[in-house]
Design a protein that fits this description.
Strand 9 and strand 10 form a beta hairpin. The radius of gyration is 23 Å and the shape is elongated. By secondary structure, the chain is α+β, with helices and mostly antiparallel strands. Strands 4, 5, 6, 12, 13, 14, 15, 16 and 17 form a nine-stranded mixed β-sheet that branches. Strands 1, 2, 8, 9, 10, 11, 18 and 19 form an eight-stranded mixed β-sheet that branches. The protein has two domains: 168 residues, FAD/NAD(P)-binding domain, CATH 3.50.50; 169 residues, D-Amino Acid Oxidase, subunit A, domain 2 (D-Amino Acid Oxidase, Chain A, domain 2, 2-Layer Sandwich), CATH 3.30.9.10. The protein contains 15 helices and 19 strands. Bound molecules: flavin-adenine dinucleotide.
Length: 411
Amino acid sequence: MFTLFNDEKTYIDKWAHRLRVSPGRATLRSVRIQECDVLVVGAGVVGLGHASAALDAGRSVIVIDRDERPVGASIRNFGHVCATGQSGELRELALGARERWLSAASRAGLDVRRDAGAVAARSHDEIDVLEEVAAARDSVELIDAAAVRAELGGAGGAALVGGARLTDDLRVDPRTAVPRLADWLGARGVEFSWRTSFLGVDDAGPGRVRVRTSRGIVTAAEVYVCVGHDLDRHFPDLADEAGVVRCSLQMMLTDDPGFRVAPAVLTATSLLRYAAFAETGAAAALRTRLTGERPDLLAADTNIMLTQRPDGGLLVGDSHTSDKTVDPFLDEGVSRLILTDVEDVLGTSLTVRQRWQGVYASRPGGPYLVGSPAPGVHVCAVTTGVGMTIGLELAARHVAGELVATVDSPT
Ligand SMILES: Cc1cc2nc3c(=O)[nH]c(=O)nc-3n(C[C@H](O)[C@H](O)[C@H](O)COP(=O)(O)OP(=O)(O)OC[C@H]3O[C@@H](n4cnc5c(N)ncnc54)[C@H](O)[C@@H]3O)c2cc1C
């Protein structure tokens, strides 16, 4: 789609420099100009959530992503929609997103598993935490060790004492769910421009924003920048004001162990991480014990959990390290720590076939960030590890104008 503007000559000359041709000699053939109601930058779960909501509202939508397909945090994770473990506003967002995943399952043919969370407890202080949450929440169903083993497909280490089913939770295959969401949106009329980088925005006059990309110019009424942890590459002041840093996580994929694990399986360290568990009175005793017995797990800021991919491989993780720029090097000691603990839960040894680093945006001030750095330009990032859990609902509320900005916008 090409739409030309009255002042196209100005833009062509402005772009001539980038295109390495002399001003005045750049031609329309060398500069692509597109027009839409809504431009979304970033084809991760947050960006696609915005695209889907804008499309449902009857807008014409273009999505650009710097890569040829989604390769960010949204495909590097566990695919766990951890609705049961959230509390407060995150719980509301998670329950909304849960409905959106289920709707995508029926509309887009995504494989979304229900009743897909479980906790495998190896100590009675973990059971105490679960009992406290179960007393307040129907979606936590306490189970004995035999039932935990059944959830683990017959596997399970000697230390298991019981656990819980987390029935609000969902599970998707992270390697395929977001790419399939993109395909589905593409089939419904969203235009995708892959390998196209967002470079910045110019004021395009009343009601329009002109966006510079590595493949030309797009003008839109609204622009949603959903680039996850790379927010600071484009809006450094806003990212700094909000305290956004990068959180790096170590992950592994194992060979098929030969048994089928239906739910995403959480362990003791998860109970210190997700608010619904961590906010219980019983969590303090669990933390005290782990501090004494497993300082290594706490030092690596682990959330030891696993999910199974459709081919049987287990996604195993994870650890957390935060900084403005994260080291790209995986620490084998941390990988061993994670793997050994998962092997203890399952009571079997595992063979690792892939290791990778995942990175997401993080900040101390809140679980997500929304703001408007310029008229018609909006940013949205999930700033803790729950983008699969809340991203679709957060995006829908953002497009509907229902979210209060969490960072100041320039006046
Ligand atoms: C290891 C790991 C495990 C996790 N597990 C879970 C889990 O089980 N459940 C859960 O709820 N959450 C989980 N999370 C968190 C979740 O994955 C993230 O919160 C979520 O994926 C963030 O989505 P996003 O769309 O903001 O980012 P991304 O998926 O990273 O997408 C951002 C996109 O922006 C694009 N982009 C960046 N810069 C530009 C540019 N200049 N121009 C064009 N495009 C650009 C990138 O190419 C990328 O495709 C996990 C995260 C990690 C890393």
